[in-house]
Design goal:
36% helix; 8 strands; alpha+beta; 6 helices; globular
Length: 209
């Protein structure tokens, strides 16, 4: 009689090492996600537990919290959701990969980070209009040499233009021609993402324990 042996479950901790430093939010190992690309200070790692993305070597929870605080808008912080449907679809073309950023947050990563300073997530609200724009730009990034060129022109979003003039001209033309088709695709993607709590942009309110 043939017997099927159960496949052993390997804990995330088994991957810890110099190439997989601990996540600033939850302490689990960070694994490779996206290689070095223009506009970013290094390759990007991600945490398989809380979802946090980190550019280069992590500098600890204090630096991550400082960047999170820089995203404050009034009484909330607004994050480009690394766990969003648009990010899963776009990969290296994800709109959230903006110049100057070192940390890419999820709601769960925020929850674990702020717990270190005695705060909790009071609410997490999907921002449909902003999320649709982000998903739309993510789709356009898949066909342009530069990154975030449309939202830079429309909203001043940090962008990485293509390096050569002819590439920038092609990017401008592609953005104009594909703007409507990309929007038609982005609407159902972001709608499904938002309804499944995977919207592209989230506003998070925090409070003390």
């Amino acid at each position: 009689m043939n017997q099927t042996e159960a496949t052993p479950v390997v804990p995330l901790e088994a991957g810890a090492g110099p190439e997989n430093p601990p996540c600033p939010a939850c302490g689990e190992p960070l694994f490779g996600w996206i290689g070095r690309r223009p506009g970013l200070a290094g390759p990007v790692r991600r945490c398989e537990s809380c979802g946090l993305g980190v550019v280069g070597d992590p500098a600890g929870s204090g630096a991550a919290l400082q960047e999170l605080d820089s995203l404050r808008e009034g009484e909330a912080v607004r994050i480009e959701n690394r766990a969003g449907a648009g990010c899963s679809l776009g990969g290296a073309g994800w709109t959230g990969l903006q110049p100057g950023r070192r940390y890419f947050f999820t709601v769960e990563a925020v929850r674990r980070l702020v717990a270190q300073r005695d705060q909790v997530v009071k609410s997490a609200r999907w921002r449909p209009a902003a999320g649709l724009a982000a998903t739309w730009q993510t789709l356009l990034n898949s066909v342009t040499f530069g990154h975030n060129v449309a939202l830079e022109a429309l909203r001043g979003t940090p962008a990485t233009p293509a390096g050569r003039p002819w590439q920038r001209r092609i990017d401008a033309l592609a953005t104009i021609v594909l703007a409507i088709p990309a929007l038609v695709i982005a609407i159902p993607v972001e709608l499904v993402g938002g309804l499944s709590r995977r919207g592209a942009v989230i506003s998070i309110r925090l409070e003390l324990f």
